[in-house]
Specification:
heterodimer; A: mainly alpha; B: alpha/beta; Rossmann fold; 5-stranded parallel sheet; two-stranded antiparallel ribbon; 7 strands; about 40% helix; globular; ribosomal protein (chain A); structural constituent of ribosome (chain A)
Chain lengths: ~200, ~180
């Protein structure tokens, strides 16, 4: 049977078509797929494309990077609070991670109020605290684990906030130095260090 | 593979699934027509992880599979290796276009040489230029390969059932397939 083994010239279809046109291949030898290909051609002709062997100049990458505007919030979150100690349960498709909760709260607050980024960041952390999720700063000593929502409501949110900030700041200090400062709320309100 | 990619998220290439749907539709349609016309279909995959799956898919369809080492003259030297007047496959379906050393499978080039059309699942590290009907998609995970096997099996079975039905209705004459 006649054939053409030049896979680098033209497509399978063009070669068979030309063989038949020139009379080398008889019409009773027509392959089964010929009519089907003619009726339903592919989106791109399967022409052979020679791959680049030498990379002289680095070609510009045409594949666009995918970034979302929530990525900025995520980056800041991970920078401040480090990786989450909780395990990601990927078996449950409805599992929402800590960082995702943070991002959702952040976008919610952003649509409601018009604060700048850092203030909004702190507001989100406070809002999560109200829900009962305690965010521990990276490198801080492990503090009290998640308290119940009722108990949290009774506390003064501001006091707990400043106490936590100074406690983590103090623990960061104790890692470097020896001084132990008093962590009672009244003292901290006066000497609390301003966070970012 | 660049035109088939949607983007790159943290160094992970994301395939544009809208394009995949169109390509998959074309490829399955072509497979169905070949099966309807009584063509021989050969499933090829050199991934050891899915060798059994591909072979069992082919068996269920009543078609053929080749998931072992591809000898050089399988298609190009078939009359010598298998005897004269061997009927070569009319369609090659690649569940993975790479071989075990991450180079393009020899079967793609050989099929193009022997004027046999190919359908193949091309991942982001594959070269889709010689494949007649490429399907941009994942060829690594079991879920994905099982999906493709299921789709091909369903297509071929339906096409063959339709063929049998038409042959019974119109006697033994070969009717022209209706265009979709």
């Amino acid at each position: 049977m006649a054939g053409s083994r030049l896979e680098k010239f033209g497509t399978v279809f063009t070669r068979v078509r030309d063989l038949m046109r020139s009379g080398v291949m008889q019409s009773n030898e027509k392959p089964i797929w010929y009519d089907v290909y003619k009726a339903f051609p592919p989106k791109r002709d399967p022409l052979y494309v020679k791959p680049y062997t030498r990379v002289i100049v680095k070609r510009p990458d045409l594949v666009p990077e995918i970034f979302y505007k929530e990525d900025k919030v995520r980056a800041k979150f991970y920078e401040k609070y480090g990786p989450s100690p909780r395990v990601f349960e990927l078996i449950k498709s409805s599992h929402v991670s800590l960082s995702q909760k943070f991002v959702d709260k952040y976008t919610e607050l952003q649509s409601q109020s018009e604060l700048d980024e850092t203030a909004l960041f702190n507001e989100t952390a406070k809002a999560l605290l109200k829900q009962g999720i305690l965010l521990r700063r990276r490198g801080a000593q492990p503090t009290v684990s998640a308290v119940s929502a009722d108990a949290v409501e009774k506390l003064n949110i501001e006091d707990v906030w400043t106490e936590q900030q100074s406690a983590s700041a103090d623990s960061a200090e104790t890692q470097h130095g020896d001084t132990q400062t008093d962590t009672s709320p009244s003292v901290d309100l006066n000497t609390s260090k301003t966070t970012e | 593979m660049e035109p088939y990619l949607y983007g790159c998220r943290l160094d992970q290439d994301i395939i544009d699934l809208d394009q995949t749907v169109e390509h998959l539709q074309l490829a399955l349609n072509f497979t169905a027509h070949i099966a309807y016309r009584g063509g021989i279909i050969l499933f090829v995959s050199r991934r050891r992880q899915f060798g059994h799956l591909v072979e069992s898919t082919a068996m269920k369809c009543g078609e053929y599979a080749h998931t072992r080492y591809w000898q050089g003259g399988l298609l190009t030297n078939a009359p010598v290796q298998y005897g004269p007047n061997v009927r070569l496959p009319d369609l090659l379906i690649f569940l993975s276009t790479l071989n075990n050393v991450f180079q393009q499978h020899v079967g793609i080039r050989d099929a193009a040489k022997m004027n046999i059309p190919t359908v193949g699942v091309v991942d982001s590290n594959c070269n889709p230029s010689l494949i007649t009907y490429p399907i941009p998609g994942n060829d690594d995970t079991p879920v994905s390969v099982e999906l493709y096997c299921r789709l091909f099996q369903m297509t071929i079975r339906r096409a063959k059932d339709k063929r049998r039905q038409m042959e019974l209705l119109h006697g033994l004459s070969k009717p022209t397939p209706e265009s979709s």
